[in-house]
Design a protein that fits this description.
The complex is a heterotrimer of chains A (331), B (250) and C (270). By secondary structure, chain A is mainly α. Helices cover 72% and strands 2% of the residues of chain A.
């Protein structure tokens, strides 16, 4: 579910960075490190654990494939939503930097899609309500399954939203969602089962770890129902904003290009070309502002581009190698 | 007798109620002594060290370090005088590079950066680990990590050194090096280990724990040659006294 | 899917690169971080059909790889996660974006160009991030994050996670290996042991966290975690480096430099 940089427009990336930053700021305030300094090493090592655990392949019975652990859900059960969220931020940043899993620009999106839904939505809407009257093995399994499915559905849907809002693909919104949601239902189910198995084991071995999850952390401002609603409302607002962005930017690309070409042809007055070629347009049309100040290019724009690319490559490599040579000599 | 640094009187402790690991422990240790704490696995050697460092505050009895009782309010004063070397060097070395890790304690005690640097250099020199200064910790071998973990507490110039199983997972050469470093530290040190050969080479006094109590406290040489007593407490004579090495001597 | 040992190997390799004595590694981390972000933003801002203009942006990663003496092959290997996704996302364009376009005398779908730009964007962004992390150690990167006022808690937690990733990965590897050696050739971890194997890893992690916390306490930790020994000053060279690349990236994203250069050559030639 990690989004790559290429799949987000800067505006969408910026919006999601802001959302994730707000969630992080809130979490940092809640975790109250002054009163519980222990939280930092626990979060740090647990982040490393999630990272390692996600590398383990779990064989899915009856199929040849394998599944992985859902980090957000599990962390929030152990560390509370805020601690879990901050830990996931660290994990995602490392995945992005060291493994090229998700991009730097898309990090805000990825934090929101995976860490926010995994920790806050799954924990506050599923885990906490189910565990309100005490923990049991059965409840852990139910909550893990439901929580993971919810987190992955929300996450997948926001991937669809963010991609569409970025105007990256021609794929219609509905079709994209129709592909993403069922796939992530299956993934959510598997991740839920794995998470349930791990949490059930922890519950048997060291019940106190789960019992104090969140509470111990000094997360005094525990979510009330209105609080949860407010967060969800904010999320809905953001979603709506993205949706409208999607609606407004989707037709942008091509129409803009066509507009450009009509302006071009009128100016140059090559009406006959337009007629003979019908709807066919030359690639030039798609290149912004490549009118060479009225003068005729000796070879077409495309060829110019290719020749230019070759020349720039040669120049760039040459200069770099020279630079390297002199830097080395100096040493 | 010289200045008493550790004073334990009637110490009783258990992680769970009713299951006491240590009961009625009393002993003293003075400046520049080196004391080996020996006993079989799980007898409470590490727990005793942790109690001295104030990591398990809910005990009964009295524990005084440099005449300061170990309590919540005195922890930071006490800890600034104690260097505690963990059994697992990976737990102790939590920074990314050697320099950063060795500099952690002096920085936390608010020393100026110049002094921090001097302390780091000095600590690394004492452990013979100067060449590792810029290295990434996870790229080091077990022996190197051990050296650095000792350096990381020496940089806070402790008056008391507590070592938990320092020779575990060390090869003979690194072990020899460790003994050299330990013998070079001339303040009080407590070494908890079941490596009796190490104790014999580094400590003049030994405390034998068994069943939550101190069975014997006396000169290391005397205690560690008492095969019968050691056997009763689940231990064996040091290897060098078991006669296995005799053939090597020729 | 890469294995656990692959991940360990990757981290070690990255660290070795960032630890080299190389002038690119000495450039101020904040400069490199900002340039990387700025570059990625400019790349993804390119119009969907502007293949030629976007190609010009290859200058930054190309020069970076050459100057930092990085292996292009290693960079390409890092594309294996991103490239399939990006291609998959671009593929529908090929069929849905049917606007015919004349390209070197051939009639093709406009979707071809939008797919190409998408793939190019994916590649360039990954290359630029690789350039950053391969020339900047994590400590320095964290320093840059602090300069950008990223909260200390987050940076500290990030550093600790990074420190213990290899430790826990090695532990996980030992456990899965021990499992595989007695599992009679089956792939992956069987359903029955899902919980216990991972759960044990988790408990060990928790115990380790406890020890780490104690080790920190014993060395005077009281919620503050000092790092990076000295202030890294901005040198003249850093500023020059920043200005040079900022200007070049801006130029390439505003003007169609490649066709202009080609045009110029054409004029001189013909």
């Amino acid at each position: 579910m990690h989004m790559a940089d290429a799949l987000v427009a800067p505006a969408v990336a910026g919006t999601m960075y802001a959302c994730s930053a707000a969630a992080a700021a809130y979490s940092i305030k809640q975790v109250r490190l002054e009163t519980d300094a222990k939280k930092i090493p626990v979060m740090g090592v647990m982040g490393a654990f999630v990272f390692a655990a996600q590398m383990i392949n779990f064989a899915i019975p009856g199929t040849g494939s394998s599944g992985h652990l859902c980090g957000g859900m599990m962390l929030s059960a152990l560390l509370g939503p805020c601690g879990g969220f901050l830990t996931m931020v660290g994990v995602l940043l490392i995945q992005c930097l060291f493994f090229a899993d998700g991009g730097l620009l898309a990090l805000g999106c990825n934090i929101w899609n995976m860490a926010f839904y995994g920790c806050f939505a799954a924990n506050l809407l599923v885990w906490k309500p189910i565990m309100r009257k005490g923990i049991s093995r059965g409840k852990i399994i139910t909550a893990s399954l439901a929580g993971c499915i919810l987190a992955l559905q929300l996450g997948a849907f926001s991937v669809v939203l963010e991609t569409s809002a970025s105007g990256i693909t021609e794929l219609p919104f509905a079709a994209f969602a129709m592909v993403m949601q069922p796939i992530h239902l299956a993934i959510g189910l598997v991740e839920g089962l794995i998470t349930a198995a791990v949490l059930a084991f922890v519950y048997e071995a060291r019940p106190e770890l789960l019992a104090r999850g969140g509470e111990r952390a000094g997360e005094k401002g525990r979510f009330t129902f209105p609080g949860t609603l407010a967060v969800l409302g904010a999320a809905a607002l953001v979603t709506g904003g993205l949706f409208s962005l999607a609606a407004s930017s989707a037709p942008d690309g091509l129409e803009w290009a066509i507009e450009k070409v009509t302006g071009f042809t009128e100016l140059e007055g090559t009406g006959e070309w337009e007629q003979s070629a019908g709807a066919i347009q030359e690639l030039t049309a798609f290149l912004p502002d490549y009118g060479f100040q009225g003068t005729q290019s000796p070879w077409g724009t495309v060829v110019s581009g290719i020749v230019g690319a070759l020349a720039v490559t040669v120049l760039c490599v040459g200069v770099c190698l020279l630079f390297r040579f002199f830097k080395r000599r100096k040493r | 007798m010289s200045h008493i640094r550790i004073d334990v009187e009637g110490l009783t402790f258990g992680y769970e109620k009713g299951k006491e690991i240590l009961s009625g422990i009393s002993f003293h240790a003075a400046e520049s002594e080196s004391v080996g704490i020996i006993g079989e696995n799980g007898v409470g050697k590490s727990t005793l060290l942790k109690l001295l460092a104030g990591l398990c505050p809910e005990y009964t009895g009295s524990v005084r370090i440099e005449d300061i009782p170990v309590e919540k309010s005195t922890l930071s004063r006490i800890r600034s005088r104690i260097g505690y070397v963990f059994q697992d060097a990976d737990s102790q070395l939590f920074m990314n590079t050697v320099y950063e890790d060795v500099a952690f304690a002096p920085r936390n005690y608010g020393l100026p950066e110049k002094e921090v640097e001097r302390r780091v250099e000095q600590a690394l020199k004492m452990t013979g680990a100067e060449h590792l200064k810029e290295k990434q910790i996870y790229r080091m071998s077990g022996g190197e990590k051990k050296l650095v973990s000792i350096a990381s507490v020496l940089s806070m110039t402790p008056d008391i050194l507590l070592l938990d199983e320092p020779s575990g997972a060390l090869d003979p050469k690194n072990r020899r090096n460790l003994i050299r470093i330990l013998n070079g530290f001339d303040h009080l040190k407590l070494i908890a280990s079941h490596d009796l050969d190490l104790i014999l080479e580094t400590c003049e006094r030994a405390v034998l724990l068994h069943g939550g109590r101190i069975v014997k406290d006396g000169p290391a040489e005397e205690l560690l040659t008492d095969g019968k007593l050691l056997e009763e407490c689940g231990l064996e004579l040091p290897l060098c006294l078991q006669g296995r090495r005799t053939y090597k001597m020729h | 899917m890469r294995g656990i040992d692959g991940a360990i190997y990757e981290i070690h390799g990255m660290d070795a690169l960032a630890a080299r004595k190389q002038w690119m590694n000495e450039v101020h981390p904040l400069v490199k971080l900002l340039l990387t972000l700025g570059y990625i933003v400019s790349v993804v801002s390119f119009s969907r059909y502007d293949v030629i203009g976007l190609t010009g942006m290859a200058v930054y990663p190309l020069a970076g790889f050459l100057l930092a003496e990085l292996s292009l092959r290693e960079g390409c290997r890092r594309l294996r996660v991103v490239l399939p996704i990006v291609c998959l996302m671009g593929l529908p364009d090929l069929f849905l974006d049917r606007q015919p376009v004349l390209f070197l005398g051939l009639q093709v779908n406009a979707g071809l160009f939008s797919m190409l730009t998408l793939v190019e964007k994916g590649i360039f962004a990954v290359f630029a991030s690789y350039l950053l992390i391969a020339t900047t150690s994590l400590d320095k990167l964290c320093y840059a994050l602090r300069l950008l006022h990223v909260p200390k808690v987050l940076v500290t937690q990030f550093m600790l996670t990074y420190r213990y990733i290899t430790v826990l990965l090695e532990e996980a590897e030992r456990m899965t290996q021990a499992y595989a050696l007695r599992a009679n050739g089956q792939k992956g971890i069987r359903f029955k042991v899902w919980g216990s194997l991972t759960g044990l890893l988790l408990l060990r992690g928790m115990d380790r966290a406890e020890n780490v916390y104690e080790a920190m306490l014993l060395r005077g930790y009281e919620g503050d975690y000092g790092y990076l020994r000295e202030k890294l000053p901005f040198r003249f060279g850093d500023i020059l480096y920043f200005l040079f690349w900022a200007a070049l990236i801006t130029a390439f994203s505003i003007w169609p430099l490649l066709p202009l250069v080609g045009d110029l050559i054409g004029r001189i030639w013909i």
